[in-house]
Amino acid sequence: MDFNVTILGSNSAAPAHGRNQTSQLVNWGKHTFLVDCGESTQFQLRKFKIKYSKIDHIFISHLHGDHYLGLMGLISTYHLNNRKSPLYIYGPMGLDEIITIQLKYSGIALKYPLIFNPTQQTGKNQLLDLTGLNIYSFPLKHRIPCTGFSFEEKSNRVKLKKEMVLKYKPGIEAIRTLLREQDVKNMKGEIIFKKEDFCQVKSPRKYAYCSDTIFDREIVNHIARADLLYHESTFMESERERASITWHSTTTDAATIGKIAQVKQLLLGHYSVRYFDLSPLLEEAKKTFAPAMLSEEGKTYVIH
Question: Can you give the pTM of this predicted structure?
């Protein structure tokens, strides 16, 4: 089953240098989730030819404009396109009021159900329970209430060994049995295909998203051993004082959190407009945590 993240926006407060404000798509199997919705999100969805009609769940980390100002436009477009299926929005208290008052004074009665679910500022909270996947929120430390999100598979994945299938050509029913982690037997009860010969069992995958936050060791329990961690890295170390004043992280902060949490890969983002060339940010992060990457708009990062 596919599990990946597509970056729609990677900048912080304002668009600059061809980069846009924060927004991501998380794809898991047939499900598509939108995480944060900066003002350029609709444009980016069209630019990268993404069918945004598939989005049923939108997660908003906090109410700074670079993370949600594109939401009302998307809600309106769904209305204009005669959407009928429910749209679920998860975000901080106040977001529902912001949406409702705009709909009220625009004279819009949506053609589809809009369902708001408030996020909490304490502990790890389950937002969505799907077959095979749980989605949680957890608190971040920023100037206003803010949450991170984690997308966590529930169980091991069973993958067939392609070379064995090509060699022995088990039938469809045999393959189904093997994928249930069971041996295939003949009518006499004799094993003809052993599950360990044909199947590879892989651990559940996890993606953690940390938008705006200062360096905070308390999030480690929520993001520990993630296959991919997105952590804001607004500034370089030379701007540490600025990072502290604005409640943001440096590249070294993000890399240190990734290292402590023992994540497999770290994705940097939420870049300050002061940086045109991002390569120094990556170089600085790699000094602390080598598996660091830059988030690049339009690029999809596969979670293995």
Answer: 0.90
